[in-house]
Amino acid sequence: MSIAIALHLLASTIWVGGMFFAYVALRPVTVDLLEPPVRLTLWARVFERFFPWVWAAVILLLGTGLWMTFAVFGGMATVGLHVHLMLALGVVMMLIFLHIYFAPYRKLSKAVDTEDWPAGATQLGQIRRLIGINLILGLLVVVIASGGRYLM
Asked: pLDDT by residue (tens digit) across 39-48?
């Protein structure tokens, strides 16, 4: 169980922490300093390196979360409301990530490869909004995970 918890926390830290860094620190600097071709290329390459980590996080979070819920705690009927909320919000986050990965990210990569900067900017804007939503959901999940059983 302690290995599952450690992997679960590590995966959530990588995913939510990565989104926080990208949204709060990296994005404002790139907007201030870089022209669109360089900025869009940078983001395409950043996502290229970050998204495999998100895939690993999604697999680990789902696997360890479900394993702990069913193998350790006896199923969804026996866990608290905070676990139900974490699972629901986590699934929404995963679905948003899947959409980002298979739609605007792929279009951003293609736009960068073909140097279609206006199309790339449109896709990056969509990714930014969706990552913003996922960041808020992820921070909410952290609050629920750390204090949920005491608050509910």
From this structure: 999 999 999 9
pLDDT tens for 6-35 read: 999 999 999 999 999 999 999 999 999 999
Identify the domain containing residue 66 by its residue range: 2-151
Nearest Cα to Cα of residue 123 among 55, 43, 58: 43
Residues with Cβ < 8 Å from 107, sequence gap 6 or more?
119, 123
- Concatenating the DSSP letter of every residue in 89-140 gives HHHHHHHHHHHHIIIIIHHHHHHHHTT-HHHHHHHHHHHHHHHHHHHHHHHH
Number of domains comprising the chain: 1
Question: CB–CB of 43/108 below 8 Å?
Answer: yes
- Predicted model pTM: 0.95
Q: How far apart are CA 124 and CA 108, in angstroms?
A: 7
